[in-house]
Amino acid sequence: MYTRLLTPKWVLLHLLVAALFVATFFLGYWQLSKAENGGGAVNWSYALQWPLYGFMGLWFYLRMVRDELRRDPDADRPGNAVVLYQRPRIDTTGDPELAAYNAYLAELNEKALGQRSSSGR
Question: Do 74 and 80 form a contact (C-beta atoms < 8 A)?
Fold first, then answer.
């Protein structure tokens, strides 16, 4: 179950999130030191915001991991998608040329779908 989180893509993502989480605390400390050395209100606000950004990013990341673990692993395999098809309506009220053209397009569509279903399976 957790082996899906050990693919190269996920391992790189784990390392990136960990590095960015730690970096936000270093940036918060840097802003705090600037604020203590006579910085203004902006430095004090950034000193609080950087750790909040880190926790917010971690929260989103944990939700992404949770969604990955809840995802059906067979959902990525081809052929599992359900395709719903509704036959188009042919407008026969009005212009007879338009109705004939629409009937011709519907016939071409039926032929194309028939070829696709017979060659695809």
Answer: yes
Query: Are 21 and 62 members of one domain?
Result: yes
- Tell me the pLDDT tens digit for each residue of 76-101: 666 656 666 666 666 667 788 888 88
Task: Return the structure tokens found at 104.
Answer: 């011709």
**Hey, what amino acid is at 29?**
Y
Condensed to tens digits (0 to 9), the pLDDT of residues 46-71 reads: 999 999 999 999 999 999 999 988 88
SS3 for 31?
helix
Same structural domain, 47 and 72 = yes
Q: Whole-prediction pTM value?
A: 0.58
For the chain, state the CA radius of gyration: 29
Task: Give the type of residue at 88.
Answer: P
Contact (Cβ atoms closer than 8 angstroms) between residue 20 and residue 54 = yes
Burial of 53 (0-12, 13-18, 19+ CB in 10 A): middle
Instruction: Report the number of distinct structural domains present in the chain.
Output: 2
51 lies in which domain range? 2-76
